[in-house]
Amino acid sequence: MLETKTKIKNSLRDLAIMGGSPLFNRELYVGCPEIGDRNNFFERVNDIFDQRKLTNNGKYVREFEERVTKFTGVKHCIAVCNGTVGLELVIRALELKGEVILPSLTFIATAHALLWSGVKPVFCDVNPETFCIEPREVERMVSPETSGIIGVHLFGRVCEVNKLQNIANKHGLKLLLDAAHAFGSTKTGKSVGSFGNAEVFSFHATKVVNCFEGGAILTNDDCFADKLRVMRNFGFKGLDTVIALGVNAKMSEVSAAMGLTSLESFEDVVSINKGNYVLYKKLLAGIPGISLFDYDLEEKNNFQYIVLSIDDKTLGISRDILMKVLRAENILARRYFYPGCHRMEPYCSMFTDFDSSLPITDRINNQLIQLPTGSTIGPQDIEKICGLISFCARNSQAIKIIPDSAELAKIIK
Asked: Do 123 and 148 share a structural domain?
């Protein structure tokens, strides 16, 4: 069991959920935005204002695309206004139709991008160890209506891209990768961004590289990249010529300026994230019923997420009770991606056949919890968080009978 020099809670009455003072006087977030060097950012913004070039593929968007291609080793980066629109563009550019197989254990945008484009999402179960889509299940679910596969690199762990590509090749399917979590990660030494027909990054404010709001599509296919560039700008090819259907998916100059600033601090942020991960792993190691999501240290990782799997029988309390306790102490833990896309609207009403067909996904969705990390979280914070979890483990029998109430329910909205 964890031993710590930091004084945490001495009795149940000390818990904030029981009326005690919160362990932290500020809120600790799972994904607190990383800002980078503000001076560098403001210098770029001032230049944007001086040039009066706010959007329409300006120099900072082009520079950001060049920096991303250089970083990943991928030929083409098409910057877009956000990752969801990036998914939608690729779905249309690949001319996906009918059905596409994807995991339910993902952010809802992965499924929404398909349905929004008139494609039926077919939810697939995941590997219990990696939490990523299970290739054997994908193979089983391929039908005459299947046009593609979407793999998701969950929590930065790269899915089985080679196995998925083999399935796609065998059945004549397109392979799209949702790489929202995985900037800077590798698989067998190969950078994320270089797999499948295309990969889509999110550069949302909470990601390890952020553009406030932003995203990018990466591909090594020259013709496909040209097609996407036309589509993201209303279908324009040249000044006055529209050659295809398109939308306004462009990234703004100020978003690109933030992306460049964020890229400059990327290695420092990853170093902090890795240090946090190592410390969490050390301090949680002796607590029965707590398993920490492991990164493959032979590959590059961004270490952005601290993911715990809770065995309620061994720990003595459920994941949701632990989460109520943590959030009352201003530790704003999350349940990514509860309850799973297949149990959210409109999918749970439209596709009732998924109700009992994803047992591993359902089990995982009732076990996972994510803890705060990033540059705003220091070693003493982590020691306090782990100490509190240890306290909950030691007092699980008493904590699990804490009465529920409307007030407590508000804590875990």
From this structure: yes
